[in-house]
Amino acid sequence: MKTFRQLALIGPTASGKTALSIDAANKLNAHILSLDSLSLYKEIDITSAKPSLEERGDIKHFGIDMLYPNEPFDVTTFIGLYHEVIAHCLQEEKNLIIVGGTSFYLKMLIEGISSLPKIDEQTKQQANEMLRELQKTYVYLHRLDAGYMSQIEATDSYRIEKALLIYLQTGLTPSEYFKRNPPQPTITEPLPIYQIEIDKQCLRERIALRTKLMVENGLIDEICMLEHKYTRTPNCMGAIGIKETLSYLDGIYDKTMLIEKITTNTARLAKRQTTFNTSQFKDVIKGSVDVLAQHFDALNWH
CATH code for 121-180? Predict the structure, then answer.
């Protein structure tokens, strides 16, 4: 293959990205990299609406079934995955379609993130001691770097810990550290981005139908298994579809209310995704699934 090509396909949840991306990958000799924060996890199958093995067919998917629900994942792990996927594509003479609803990962690939300092054991121990009083530590960091900490909620233990580790290890406030260590983009070539546009009412109906089918296909049993195996502690156990089902299991909702709650919260997520995509990405090719399929038909990537 003389030239490696890649594109991104974004759009709100339940808009038809999965089927369109698989169809495009078949036509464009491509692997698929999933941009979905829930499909990453093994055993979260129904809730994540990840494509089944049958749906994937001969198309190799990356970013699906990578981790167990109690294993950590962040954007730096995703960037490492992207480099691995590119190596696979070049070795196997394949192009790449990046697809999913978690467009924050795509934004980070394009804009980059700053490398973090190596944290020694003494610093980790000092941070662990301080983080026992999270509110006090937040106030301490806020006094040092109000501009940076004002973007972080006082209850966001993950980001507070990250800011604290940077300060304790380097002696620099997070703002000063990131100023000295600016982000390095991972994708440096122009990346064509395609965005699915879909009528709001039509999307709501698709979400409602998908939710109903998820419940009929064993969503509740899947969440029971996940809770028994991993407890409610992992971050992914707070995802839409999981948190509502846990409330159902606690007796707060009946099954009708469960379906309504998941549908409503998923529709709100879809609205946030559309707002993010519209505000964060420029020069995007927009259209319905059918219109974008025609765009892909016109590409000559073989």
Answer: 1.10.20
